[in-house]
Design goal:
36% of the residues lie in helices and 15% in strands. By secondary structure, the protein is α/β, with parallel strands linked by helices.
């Protein structure tokens, strides 16, 4: 089976415990030296002043909203074509999600649609870097409300020559096992403005500024030291892995253009292809045919959030619905061989 996600790093480990040996030997499983070291290295990598390591990207989004003071009576603008974390955290802080449509070409939040929904109650905008394609942050900043960049899928990407993590007011990352930079469980991080990060640093650890000194109601949202050490080992390989993903995407673009709809890179973005999502009316048939040939693929995202019972919205978001109906992710991870990439291209052409 050619899988949608690759675990080549893990496959080469003869003794997995060596990937977290420092943490194991020191028994510093919570807030250990590895967490501080990862924060330092990742902040440097992102060209950011600072970083706070967290238990997940969902926690990063949640605590970012709290640090901005978002709560009941407030509105947060975002898109319905995304993973549910983007929207559930808005509800969790008591605010109201306000949906806007995506742009059809790059599938990211459409600033022209944002302009129609800005109000006095708007306290933040969450722009999603969908599938590794960076949304147009500078356009979102023009509305003069804090911008949170959901970069769960775009770690290592660039926007106008700047590394993701150094552009928005707050940028939230995911290190889930299938992400471009991944660990062995749930983990995330946030970079951005220092005044917000200090609050997030306390919120992640029960509201403590130091041990037993609680300054606010907090959460348990710390990154495990084991995950931090795994990430330290993987971080130096990220740019090489993203380059391989981009090379595979270029090969797909050249061979699948005119066969299916192919992804469009935002003109200001360096896409890192967490997912390579094609679009076609026969998406279900293509998925079944690929599976019959031993190639995994997956609908992304099969139901836009405004069509779900929990987050239903009476608005009409045609681009989000179109992408949901016709989008299919095919393998693009860095461990694919040239033979596998050629096989995927050939099989998609046969399926049409």
């Amino acid at each position: 089976m050619i899988s949608l996600s690759g675990f080549g790093y893990e496959d080469t480990l003869k003794n997995p415990s060596k990937a977290f040996s420092n943490t194991w030997n020191s028994r510093s499983f919570i807030n250990g030296p590895a967490v501080n070291e990862f924060e330092r290295q990742f902040a440097k990598y992102c060209e950011a002043d600072s970083c706070v390591a967290l238990s997940s990207c969902t926690s990063a989004l949640h605590l970012s909203l709290l640090a901005l003071g978002v709560g009941p009576g407030d509105e947060v603008i975002t898109v319905p074509y995304t993973w549910v974390s983007t929207v559930e955290v808005i509800r969790q802080v008591g605010a109201t999600p306000v949906f806007v449509d995506i742009a059809l070409n790059d599938m990211c939040i459409d600033p022209k649609e944002v302009a129609k929904k800005i109000s006095k109650r708007t306290k933040a905008i969450i722009g999603v870097d969908l599938y590794g394609n960076v949304c147009d942050i500078d356009e979102l900043k023009k509305f003069n409300v804090p911008v949170i960049q959901d970069s769960a899928q775009s770690t290592g990407a660039y926007y106008k020559g700047k590394r993701v993590g150094s552009v928005a007011d707050l940028t939230c990352f995911s290190f889930y096992p299938t992400k471009n930079l991944s660990c062995w469980g749930d983990a995330g991080a946030v970079t951005g403005s220092g005044k917000y990060l200090e609050t997030i640093r306390q919120l992640r650890n029960h509201g403590q500024s130091s041990r037993f000194k609680m300054n606010m109601v907090g959460w348990n949202a710390r990154m495990d030291s084991i995950q931090a050490e795994v990430l330290i080992n993987k971080l130096p390989e990220l740019d090489k892995h993203n380059a391989r993903r981009r090379a595979i995407a270029t090969q797909y673009n050249g061979n699948l253009h005119g066969v299916v709809e192919i992804p469009v890179q935002n003109v200001n973005s360096t896409h890192v292809y967490h997912q390579y999502v094609i679009k076609n009316k026969q998406v279900d048939d293509i998925e079944k045919f690929l599976l019959s040939k031993g190639i995994q693929s997956r609908r992304y995202y099969p139901t836009p959030l405004h069509k779900t019972e929990t987050y239903k919205d009476k608005g009409y978001y045609p681009n989000a619905e179109y992408c949901s109906n016709e989008g299919l992710a095919i393998p693009v991870h860095q461990y694919l061989t040239s033979k596998e990439v050629s096989s995927i291209i050939k099989t998609i052409k046969e399926a049409i």
